[in-house]
Amino acid sequence: MSRPRRLRRAELPADTVELARYLIGKVVVHDTASGRLSGRIVETEAYPVGDAAGHAFIGKTRRNRSLFLKRGHAYVYLCYGTWFLLNVTSEEAGVGAGVLLRAIEPLEGIGEGKPGRGPGRLTKALQVDLSQDGWDLCGGGPLWLAASAQQAGAIGKSIRIGITRNAHRHLRFYEIGNTHVSGAKKMRL
Q1: DSSP for 107-125, written as a single string
Q2: In degrees rounded to 5, what are phi and psi of residue 56?
């Protein structure tokens, strides 16, 4: 595999919805003590400014403070006491919004036994937990975003999965036909 190029913050769209679409086909990399783990992002969900389904809607708290960092940082939280979820912050510093990474196509260090289909499985495969909350994904750290040698296929959009507020909004983006996309089969076509 060719050496991935780190994405620069300036390459990330400042708009949350644009960023969610832009990240399809990009790579998320975690350099761990035991080796590199990486996957091509094939599904995202946008949680833009003012979205009642987003964690920033209630304002800045101790739990969500990383969500208010400038775009390109990790916002990691524990969901239902079981799964860690990884988001990429968007917008400018002080404005809470982000993009949930929902699924990856495994690349380096992630075997078929550790699929990245679904946001909880994604973090498990990449060994991401609360200790990475707030990390700069565009800096020189071990958890980062990269360009991909493989161009994204056709991108679909739909309603988000598993939410009740603002559930009608088409803010989920995915690579059409990719078998690593989460949700029911009809949500992948």
Answers
A1: -SS--TTS-EESHHHHHHH
A2: -80, -10
Q: Which residue segments constitute the domains of the chain, with CATH numbers given? A: 9-187 (3.10.300.10)
Q: Which two tokens stand for residue 73?
A: 């940082």
CA-CA distance, 5 to 45, in Å (whole number)? 24
pLDDT tens digits, 62-89? 889 999 999 999 999 998 778 999 999 9
Buried-state track 10-35, b at ≥16 Cβ within 10 A, e below 16: eebeebbbebbbbbbbbbbbbeeeee
CA distance 140 to 155: 29
Query: What pTM was estimated for this model as a whole?
Result: 0.92
Q: What is the CA radius of gyration of the chain?
A: 15
SS3 sequence of 43-107: EEEEECCCCCCCHHHHCCCCCCHHHHCCCCEEEEEEECCCEEEEEEECCCCCCCCEEEEEEEEEC
Hey, how many other C-beta atoms are within 10 angstroms of the C-beta on 157? 16
